[in-house]
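Table S2 (continued). Query chain:
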Amino acid sequence: MLGKNDRVYLSGYIGLDKFTFQNPAGTFNANIPWGNKIATLRWNHQFNDKLFVNTTLVYNSYSFAANFNQNDFGIKIASGVEDLNAKSDLDYYTSFHHHFKAGIAYTHHEFIPNQISGHADSIVLNPDNAFIKYAHEAGAYVLDEFEPTKWWKINLGMRYSWFEQIGPYTGYTLDANGNPTDSTKYGKNQPVKAYGGWEPRFNMRFELDENSSIKTSIAKTYQYIHLVSNNGTTLPTDVWVPSTSLVQPEMAWQYSAGYFRNFKDNMIETSVEAYYKTMSNEIQYKDGYVPNNTQDPQLSYVFGTGTAYGAEFFVNKTRGKFTGWVGYTLSWTWQQFPLLNNGLEFPAKYDRRNDVSVVGSYEFNKKWTCSAVFVYGSGNAITLPTAYYFVDGQLVEQFSKVNAYREPAYDRLDISATYTPHHAKPHKWQSSWTVAIYNVYDRHNPYFLYVDNEGSVSNTSSIKLTVYEVYILPILPSITYNFKF
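Corresponding output:
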């Protein structure tokens, strides 16, 4: 039975977004829906003033589809992930300056990594090629936060993570060139391949004086679910895929150190922090990969290493009528694959050299607050076609080196005003109205690029190729009503 020391929370979310586009000539159109369904049930129990436990059950379903049609050719790439998750976390505060945390977690995964269908002229391809994959994932951790002295705080933890692919599944044996030579079928829930590893974490804070400190950290992590990008297209076709008998988990070590200082009685917080990260078993598609409607996509992956490093600068005003913060990150993210880019290092797709965020809020009175948000980021690295050839009457592209070009930078300004009714006496029902304008100066930030061709292959001199940018979400006003009780 639930008592005064128990709290139960139930929450849910359903969201669906859909992007559509058609060029003026009608020769290219895109239809990209994606969405999430989430349900969470959480139970919090307080045993006493020093011991707490949180137990959570989560259902999550994510789906994504990308439909592209150009002239008489069309392709649809769909993917999705469905998870059932249970976890329990324990907090224990001791009387001798130690705060212990411990927990366990389990997730059942179902992946649709790459379901492909399409048409070419009157020929329709709609095969049963979902290549659905299933897996168990679990972990357990223990963490100790303690202060050996008033000026020295240590956070020391260890986690063990485990991942197992299960059937139904068809496994493959590959030769030295990555071509399948044999296959093995696994039945429902039959173990296929298991991975696991220890993930140590170590953080320290040295207090220099009452206003400044130095923080350092080291952490090792395993990642069993991968985001795979196709460097041969600028279209949004990234998909989530699991570790399998052919795909090993990614592993990373991250090191960071920072200086933190507060001013004016902690009203202004500042920090500068540098980090360095090494990654192994990075994953990409093979050079020249084209979606295949009959072959498991994992047979088209290649693997490599990566490094990321940079510095983050932050200033935050926490009190007063005007509050806000400014953040700037300077970073580099590199990848290297023996079978891509002639083995040479190249920037990752989401390498972002400069990232700026500016947030400000001004409280005129208890009823009215105005806010503004400005963001700026360097464009993603992309691979573009640099030459075209005719082979047997077909237009064939030749691409640049991997991610040799950049999309235009992304920037946007949003403003809003919030009205909160003020009552002389406390009310159980609280509400507010927000009027906002998204992308105030109507910045055309590209969502993806595509190449349109005009003319006939029977007259090659008439062929004209043009690269177009497709933008998303221009200036957009909105009115929102919020309430809680």
